[in-house]
Design a protein that fits this description.
alpha/beta; Ferritin; Rossmann fold; Methane Monooxygenase Hydroxylase, Chain G, domain 1; two-stranded antiparallel sheet; 25 helices; globular; D12N6_MeTrfase_N
């Protein structure tokens, strides 16, 4: 199943499941967990069937008169699947008679699975009898089971179900089902991918102390499989997560199970506990913690002695005129401000081992926060572990429109970078998804990764990114050219139909046929050529048809007038026949072209974006090597950071560019605008005087 088919199936399943909810009285929050539980159950069944087939294929032949033993639980585990008890299997539930309670049967199925697999104990939903009012839960549940029992779903293999689970999580988050302030319930995939791509978590201990639904771990698994070719993700990494909210803990454990990932998720409060004891032990830390959390109890003994915070220090009083004494602060790491942003930042730093990397989302206010937070930031900068800061614009979170920054730490920076930080201002880099949601395109993520790799010393990082753009563009463009070839053949079949041309319609079939022929050499051309001409056969044909359509309509109107003023001669009858035939032909061609654009709209948009991203990379770095780009990126010395009051806001360093037309007389235009404004004000005053003088 290709990506387009997966996306279509995701949308179809969501639309079906969501329409069922819309016809019930359930809120999205009430509906979310039971529905995600059914997805897990369906996925477990699929993996069970596939593993069983592999196990049985490798068993030795059975002697005559003897029966084959059933595969064991350990055999299924070795195949990355669960041994599903018969009463918990999806096909058993789908075939349940109407007179038996389906909600009770699903609750039982979940209980049986938890009994077999203690790591899922208390995780799976078992409240299916509450899916609506009396009787409604049975109907709704049976319909949902049918939705996920389609043949297309039964045959899914690989990590397609993981994709579907993530898609449903994202959709629920967009609907506000359980979403928290700052988007903590579900981190937008674009930001997760940015973090994973830039820190490259390919080994060891991975930790997220605010793990939500576990998206950081899942994306790490994708990265290992797709970018590192790792066959066994669980052998390469160990996942540890901490999450405060019980519901999110269950979602995270289900998410790991769906993706076949092993991990320990603790339900705890990271402000007051370190349940995994990972200080100094982590190879990678990733997180999207809740922003600006207030009322953390900083007087608790654990907080005061927390090894995840910096040490004691004395700072000057804020009011030096009235208090010349030094004001003691219990620990540098306990900020005076009533928000927990700088607690989180210190946690992430101190979890890292000597070569560890961290990537985390943080409120924009943190990069310039003053007073005690500034001192903590200064101490962090002076450790030389701050590696990169990325400014992110509005509309990346599903439930709130707020900008943020993504911080990257690296305790194992190469010597050349110890005194440097890469600043990236990405506020003007994004892809519009809807009116309220933005994200990063795959090509934009490639560009960010290339900047980071070049900064880390990889000499050919920019050229490799350009080659990656070319390869991706060539793949999509070649697919579209194949689709255009199919369109060409269909259009030629229509044009070959017998249809004499009337003198009133200027239509040159030879010209039309020439325009829609796809040059076979294009499939062998460079990807740059493909980028420039992939649309040409279809776009030119569309333009010709629009012109011919207008001509035909004009001729048809002229003929209608002729019918009224002249007799119904044989010539007129012949002309009408010609026009009708051409109209039919035009309609057939228009349907074909419209179908092409509808079928390939996403690919066309994707290719345009890919070409744009590739061109941006070449514009930024025309020589194929990293350079500072005004308004986008700059490698900053720590001395410059200190001179800027230890600010970590990229916009303060990368600058901005303004296009100025030196040939344009701005002063003259300003004078003209002032004159126009004065004239408008006079007219407004005159009109007001006139209105006031009217006797109502």
């Amino acid at each position: 199943m290709n990506q387009k088919q997966i996306k279509a199936l995701e949308t179809q399943l969501w639309d079906s499941a969501n329409s069922l909810r819309a016809n019930s009285k359930l809120t999205a929050a009430e509906y979310k967990d039971p529905l995600l539980g059914l997805i897990l159950l369906r996925y477990a069944q699929n993996r069970f069937e596939q593993a069983k087939a592999r196990i049985e294929a490798n068993l030795p032949p059975v002697a005559p008169g003897r029966t084959r033993k059933e595969p064991t639980k350990d055999q299924f585990l070795s195949e990355g699947a669960m041994l599903i008890p018969p009463q918990a299997r999806y096909d058993h539930l789908a075939a349940l008679p109407e007179d038996e309670s389906i909600s009770q049967a699903v609750n039982t199925a979940m209980t049986l699975i938890e009994a077999e697999y203690p790591n899922l104990n208390g995780v799976l939903p078992k409240n299916y009898h509450e899916l609506g009012e009396k009787g409604q839960s049975e109907t709704l549940l049976r319909e949902l089971i049918r939705v996920f029992n389609q043949d297309a779903v039964k045959g899914l293999t690989g990590d397609v179900f993981g994709r579907i689970y993530e898609f449903f999580l994202m959709k629920f988050s967009m609907d506000g089902a359980g979403a928290q302030e700052g988007g903590e319930f579900f981190t937008p995939p674009a930001l997760v991918q940015l973090i994973v791509n830039l820190i490259q978590p390919d080994h060891g201990v991975i930790h997220d102390p605010a793990c939500g639904s576990g998206g950081m771990f899942v994306q790490t698994g994708h990265f290992l499989e797709e970018n590192r070719g790792v066959k066994s993700v669980n052998a390469a990494i160990k996942c540890y997560g901490t999450e405060l909210k019980s519901n999110n803990v269950r979602l995270a454990k289900m998410n790991l199970a769906i993706h076949g990932l092993e991990g320990k998720i603790a339900e705890n409060n990271s402000f007051y506990a370190d349940p995994h004891n990972l200080v100094g032990q982590c190879d990678f830390v990733m997180a999207n913690p809740p922003f600006n959390v207030k009322k953390v109890d900083k007087d608790r003994p654990y907080v005061k002695n927390d090894p995840r915070l910096f040490g004691k220090v004395e700072i000057e009083s804020a009011d030096e005129e009235t208090d010349k004494k030094k004001k003691p602060v219990p620990r540098l790491g306990i900020p005076n401000a009533d928000n927990a942003n700088y607690l989180w930042i210190q946690y992430f730093y101190h979890y890292l081992n000597a070569k560890g990397r961290a990537g985390f989302v943080m409120a924009s206010s943190a990069t310039d926060a003053g007073n005690s937070e500034k001192l903590i930031r200064q101490a962090l900068i002076e450790t030389q572990a701050v590696d990169c800061i990325v400014s992110v614009g509005n509309n990346f979170f599903y439930t709130r429109s707020l900008p943020c920054h993504v911080w990257f730490l690296d305790k194992g920076k190469r010597a050349e970078n110890k005194q440097r930080i890469l600043m990236i201002d990405a506020r003007n880099t994004f892809r519009v998804v809807t009116n309220t949601i933005n994200d990063y395109s795959p090509g934009q993520l490639v560009n960010f990764s290339a900047m980071m790799e070049a900064y880390r010393g990889k000499a050919d990082a920019i050229r490799e990114a350009a080659a990656q753009h070319e390869a991706n563009i060539a793949d999509v463009a070649t697919t579209l050219l194949a689709e255009a070839e199919g369109l060409r053949r269909a259009c030629l079949a229509v044009l070959k139909e017998e249809s004499p041309l009337g003198e009133s319609l200027e239509w040159d079939i030879a010209e039309l046929q020439a325009e829609i022929i796809v040059d076979e050499a294009l499939t062998l051309a460079s990807s740059r050529t493909l980028c420039g001409v992939f649309e040409q056969p279809v776009a030119v044909l569309s333009g010709l048809l629009e012109g011919y359509q207008a001509q035909w309509e004009q001729a048809r109107k002229a003929f209608a007038a002729l019918e009224k003023s002249a007799q119904n001669t044989d010539d007129n009858k012949a002309l009408k026949k010609q026009l009708d035939a051409q109209g039919k032909q035009l309609k057939a061609l228009s349907v074909l072209i419209k179908g092409y654009f509808e079928k390939n709209s996403e690919e066309l948009a994707s290719l345009k974006q890919a070409v744009k991203d590739w061109q941006a990379l070449e514009d930024y770095f025309p020589d194929g090597v990293y350079r500072d780009v005004e308004g986008l990126c700059k490698i900053v010395d720590l001395a410059e950071v200190a001179a800027n009051d230890y600010s970590l806001t990229p916009g303060r360093y990368v600058g901005y560019s303004v296009d100025v037309n030196e040939a344009f007389d701005y002063q003259k235009r300003i004078t003209e605008i002032h004159a126009e404004l004065s004239n408008l004000n006079q007219q407004a005053n005159s009109l007001m005087s006139f209105i006031q003088g009217i006797d109502l």
